[in-house]
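Database export, one record per block. Field names are fixed; values are copied verbatim from the stored entry.
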Amino acid sequence: MKTHGTALRQETVSIGNDGNPVTKNVPYQVMKTKGLNNIDKDIRDIRININIDSYGYLDIEEARQGRNGEWLSHDIEVKGRDYNSRAVNETTSIRSREADPDKQTEAYEKAKENEFAVEDGIQYDEMFLAEHAEEIVQSLIDEGYQKPEAVDIFNYMIGEENLSLEEAKERVNKEIGEKSKEKEEGNVENEGRAQGGRDMGEEAYERLESRGRI
């Protein structure tokens, strides 16, 4: 393999250990390669990226350009060492023709635009969720959730259970419904209701109805 340093500005999406896209940045240095991109038709070009982390350590990645022109990178696996996870190896496998940079980079852009789709089975890891926390919470508020409810959904996604977006929504919607039911069964009235207003449980229940959740 022949490489040489360049001054290329190459925005690259990096994937995590689960094979899903997590970050997008510009590498510190990019090296071109020759003769590595003639195996898989989904890959237009292959380069080597060098990144420097916040502690000054080097991180070397293999970057692959998909047919859409975007770059996807993953940590380089060292022969004789189990460096990458099975998910990464399968996602980036040229030999089995599993590598498809377009799928991963498009998934990242889709998530970045606050769509956070789950229909194609994509679940983002903790690093990605932390990076986009404010965007995710705001997108949920825009859907009609109160901020505490939106934060609860996000916490279920990033917590130990690692729920998908839809699973986290279902969990919180169920909790809202249960709280409303408890208030109704116990005939609990707060001061606001005594003055002719509605209690928080009723309001939460109506929000679920307006979103078609019940």
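Remark 1: Helices lie at 86-91, 101-112, 126-131, 133-143, 147-158, 165-186, 191-194, 200-210.
Remark 2: Strands lie at 3-6, 12-15, 21-25, 29-33, 45-52, 58-65, 71-75.
End of record.
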